[in-house]
Amino acid sequence: MHLHLPIDLLMGRLPLILHVMEVIGVLAFAISGVVDARKQRLDAVGTFIVAFATAFGGGTVRDVLLDRRPFYWVEHEYYVLLIFAMSIGAAIVFRVVSTVASDRAMLVADAIGLGLFSVTGTSLALVAQMTPTVAVMMGIISAVFGGVVRDVLCNEVPMILRDRSPYATCSFVGCWVYVGLTWLRADQELALLAGALVTMAMRLLSVQLGWKLPS
């Protein structure tokens, strides 16, 4: 399959929309890590470690597989500083936030991170001249692996293994929406947003409506 990519992507320059989506995705996954860590009553340092691993785990594995250097969190050090500040602030915020509210925050933040990392990971893989199938796998790894690390660090069975609600499936569908629109030569910003929104909507609806994958 031949895919048309804008010249900025082909030359390795991230357009503004891709960079913004990456930042929001990092913060969203970090929030889900902070929420899970605080539920486990970890201290500020433990919370930071979990948030850091959640935000950067999938993207780091993606960068290793695509042989991209420097890693994106090394290149943008302010990501790390933002997550550290969030970890400190969480100790104060979670004293006044109910468990139900924190669970909802984790669900929404995780869905946002899942959607954004799915399409940004796929896009970066296409730039690296990967085939569409491999690019979709890179998108799924980017989106899912951070959550796996988060759950392991919090001594939980990873959500992707214990929850029959669609998770990686949502990422899979969203990645292919992005690839399909790119193949159709749609505007790249539209393709990225569409793929991300499809992933987010599928994940939130699957939880809200109780969708289950067959066992």
Can you characterise this structure?
It contains 10 helices and no strands. It has 215 residues and is mainly alpha-helical. α7 (132-153) runs antiparallel to α9.
Characteristic key phrases:
mainly alpha; 215 residues; globular
Question: How would the blueprint of this fold be written?
Answer:
Blueprint: H1 7-10, H2 16-39, H3 44-65, H4 72-75, H5 78-93, H6 99-127, H7 132-153, H8 159-162, H9 168-183, H10 188-208
Helix pairs in contact: 2-3, 2-5, 2-6, 2-7, 3-5, 3-7, 6-7, 6-9, 6-10, 7-9, 9-10
Estimate the helix proportion, in percent.
Answer: over 70%
- Provide the domain count: 1
For the biggest sheet, the summary is: none
* Helix and strand sequence: HHHHHHHHHH
Which of globular, elongated, flat, extended, rod-shaped describes the shape? Answer: globular
Strand content is under 5%
Task: Return the structural class.
Answer: mainly alpha
Please tell me the overall pLDDT: 82
Low-pLDDT segments, ≥5 res: none
Provide a brief overview of the structure.
With 215 residues, this protein is mainly alpha-helical. It has helices spanning 7-10, 16-39, 44-65, 72-75, 78-93, 99-127, 132-153, 159-162, 168-183, 188-208.
